[in-house]
Amino acid sequence: MGQTARAKKQILALNAFPADGGAALADDVAALVARRRKSFGATSVLFYEAPLHIVGAKGADIFTADGRTYLDLYNNVPSVGHCHPKVVEAVARQMGRYNTHTRYLFDEVHDYAERLLAHFPAPLTNVAFTCTGSESNDLALRLIRGATGGMGIVVTDTAYHGNTTAVTEVSPSSYKTGAPPAHVRTVPPPHPRHYGADVGKGFAAAITAAAKAMADEGIPFAGLLVDTIFSSDGVYADPPGFLSAAFDAVRALGGLVIADEVQPGFARTGTHMWGFARHGVVPDVVTMGKPMGNGFPMGGVVTRPELLTRFANEFGYFNTFGGNPVASAAGLAVLDAIAEDGLMENARAVGAHIVGRLDAARGRCAALGEVRGAGLYLGVEIVAREDGAPDPAAASALINRLRDKGILIGAAGPLGHVLKVRPPLCLTLEQADRFADAMEDILSA
Amino acid sequence: MGQTARAKKQILALNAFPADGGAALADDVAALVARRRKSFGATSVLFYEAPLHIVGAKGADIFTADGRTYLDLYNNVPSVGHCHPKVVEAVARQMGRYNTHTRYLFDEVHDYAERLLAHFPAPLTNVAFTCTGSESNDLALRLIRGATGGMGIVVTDTAYHGNTTAVTEVSPSSYKTGAPPAHVRTVPPPHPRHYGADVGKGFAAAITAAAKAMADEGIPFAGLLVDTIFSSDGVYADPPGFLSAAFDAVRALGGLVIADEVQPGFARTGTHMWGFARHGVVPDVVTMGKPMGNGFPMGGVVTRPELLTRFANEFGYFNTFGGNPVASAAGLAVLDAIAEDGLMENARAVGAHIVGRLDAARGRCAALGEVRGAGLYLGVEIVAREDGAPDPAAASALINRLRDKGILIGAAGPLGHVLKVRPPLCLTLEQADRFADAMEDILSA
């Protein structure tokens, strides 16, 4: 628990602009920071000691007011590329035609629903559109709690699933003080250092134990909520299939599984549209958000019809903006871009290239720890040269050095020592090499 | 309670397309309905016996696939007018420039935050951007519960504040079975029929009693969450100032007040930017949604800095899409349109014209009950000719007759007998007359 408490502080502080303004700031940046503090108050969190003042973006590039161009390895929201022309055109066109809620009929909405659902295995045949990943996970929790009659949810130690009241409870990484309530239990992420060689078996056993512990305290089990790439825990993708035992364990206890695809979804992992599909499992509920509209605010919940029916018998549910015609146009353009630009294969190839480059550099870069992940969702551990221990301070310094070299990246994991590589999926081999070169330059110095 | 239970069923069923398909449908409509049922399942709720297949919209007009034009008195999301050119242009332009989350600096975001905050009285000087009214109310609940240490919330009998787990609890109108939990208590809406002549005093006393009843059961009071036009309760606007006693009562008990401006906000009530301002009160937290971006998914929470600080000390909060540059561009365009198109004054004048026309028609239309509201948020009671009792069946029939005459409108209130007039704010006097003429035609027959 001591480590978890420290972990939260690390994550929350990571890469944030300190309130006392450590760095010397350009005039335009200083002015914006001052305005921001006045309007946004305490919830104003900025990246970097000297925050970026953005004036443009394209593909995997971000342009700032000081004339610099940054290679973006952080932003997975503009997943098919910043300002992808297909998405820009689709949103602009539909904004000018009509944009009303979905209690009327529109062609685009149903075209999109069908195109999206075609990417899901049976029996996941219904979709409910929302506006954010948070709303998606909030609805998903209602679905599985209603169906099981249980409140108890198991998540990973450093999980983040969103920002509503209910979803914050299942997001231990959001707690600066205190901890989630008794109906939420955490388990370590799936890695041999926690579970030994058979990660799947160990992870499943931990989930079973957590669920039983809740049940023993009179809290019936609802199920498992899991980001299928474990992004905020530090990125855990291998071996494909390890999630299968966990799904079986949940179901053996009468629970249901929500796969949170906000991070891995929409082809990012390079071989499958969804993170869960890499593991050969079928969740009961799948939630989507960030990359779904390439920045247009939209999310969704895909599930079995009976779960939705059960819920709809108890509650009225309508999402005013959810699946509106402009969101649908954006969503269709994203699906088109993934297919037409070959982004899944690009994610696989470029991600593998980065892993290869970093693995090859390890001999010259003692601070380079484990490199893991899938496609263009990678975790790169930064460790102490002496003993290989996690080194969050070095990771933070590295992030700022990379920024000086024109590369934007973030970190994850309970201690914040895992670089999180999740660029727009259009990242080129040349751009990937630029990142690998910069890593080598800095870490071999 | 019997009435409340019936009320919920009425509201939820109101105007919905029945699952067994009562009406004969055009081929395109039938095909879309079939596709919709397959994709959306149980959460697919459509308006009208024969749903509308929309292919365009402009100003207060909606165009359908069968070549008809409908006058839209229902949709308050496209508040400055369907497809307002300023909003369309702003979104299209910004989509093509950049659209990233707000942990970087952007000019537009801070221009918008300041322009928006300029419409609020001290000490409401901080804003947190969200994507929906639901997210706004969810965050607002967290703010006041954290600050007071209480869970207890008072809302009105037929309140609707959104769709997250926490916000559904404070939305009695969303319950098809059961009722909100013990930490949510309801009071009748502010009308003489519930409280006698001094509505403000009676409403305040009811809130005090509800809060004390919770406290007696060991549930400390957090505060009042109130839609300042009481839209889903049936629209209650007068006399201006009646909310003052309620705010005082809440504060006397150590509670805080959330003003939900999703419905009345952004100039709709004709004389003020916000519903609370009509009452001369200052809430602790103000929440916004629907009309904020004219259909672009965005919401916001405006509050006192200390409430946000207290919250941010306990929880990390970030909203990925909230206040992004495109949302900010849309929000700025909406504020411009309200000012440049004179929409507040238009709402006042056209709303008053409708009230005048309906009041004048009452002698010839026995089913016309009380007409109330402010600006372009009006409630029109439909009553039985014989005894003036609420007549939801007549309201439902009227809504469908109006639709036949090319006018779209909805209903509200616990029984669903209150027509809800909330068109885009650009509604013209000529369009208002068309509505009044149609009402007279139908109701005097």
UniProtKB/TrEMBL annotation, chains A, B:
Cofactor: pyridoxal 5'-phosphate
PANTHER family named among the record's database cross-references: ALANINE--GLYOXYLATE AMINOTRANSFERASE 2-LIKE, PTHR45688
Family affiliation: Belongs to the class-III pyridoxal-phosphate-dependent aminotransferase family.
Protein name: 4-aminobutyrate aminotransferase-like enzyme
Keyword Plastid: no
CDD domains membership: OAT_like
UniProt feature coiled coil, ranges: none
Keywords for the protein's UniProt record, in alphabetical order: Pyridoxal phosphate
Pfam family, one: Aminotran_3
Gene source species: Xanthobacter agilis
Keyword match Magnesium: no
